[in-house]
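Appendix B. One record, verbatim.
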Amino acid sequence: MPQATDVLVMGGAGVDTVVRVPALPLPYADSYMIDSGIVTRAGQTGDFVAVGLAALGLRVHHLDLLGEDPEGELVRALHERHGIALTAILQPAGTKRAVNLVGPDGRRLSLYDTSRSRPGDRFPEAAVRALAGASRHVHVTITQPGDHALPLLRESGATLSTDLHDWDGTDPYHEPYAYAADVVFLSAAALTDPEATMRRIAGRGRAGTVVATAGAEGAYLLADGEITRVPAVTPPAPVVDSNGAGDAFAAAFLYGRLNGEPPARCARYGAVAGAYACTVPATGTAAIGRTELLTRAAAAESAVR
């Protein structure tokens, strides 16, 4: 019997307040006038992955803890607009939120409100089993309480992916995710030796594919035991914000994987989608569509032949 969902996204639903600042780091001052406005919108890592997958035509379901609060309503509305199924477990502490300071070059500094989670938070076992069992693939964000669900997800038979974001290769918080997933994404920004970290993830865990994104320098791809470099793709418009680029990369990579494409082509899809995401203002959540992704990926592939 075919699964009803292509990808179950677990965790990472929340709201960001976006502030465009004149520089990062921001020099101390008593106050700043923000002429571009201060905008609050739904969209954290799980939301961006879900939106990216849906824009590429995949059937997506998102599971997370949400509060009965204005932030939660923004998240629910985002999913409704994009046609994404959402299972929201009540979080009495409130919906996750953060403040993003965005510099002129698109770099950002994120401030996360950790008061919106509790040590005893858990996804209901019945919901995890039912949703994972109905899915071809599960993407687990590293927000709590995803690590507690990892054993149940492995039992489901679905393949798993995760994004370790700016892991430094040593913080033990990330290790359960790194070693449980079949596909691991992470940023190379905090790694002194990206290739060694990638091989350690594959050697100690289940991952057959590891991708370390490196911004304008492209990405590293570990697949079939070999590490190759993935060239960066020129964005189709000026870069305005890097927020969500890694999520877009992961979504497009998974789209390729679920359609039977080889890892190198999946990584090319990821590079194209990540470059596109850098042209979307921090206040938006637009994602590249399937036709544009395939057209731009084919052009990028031809350019390196």
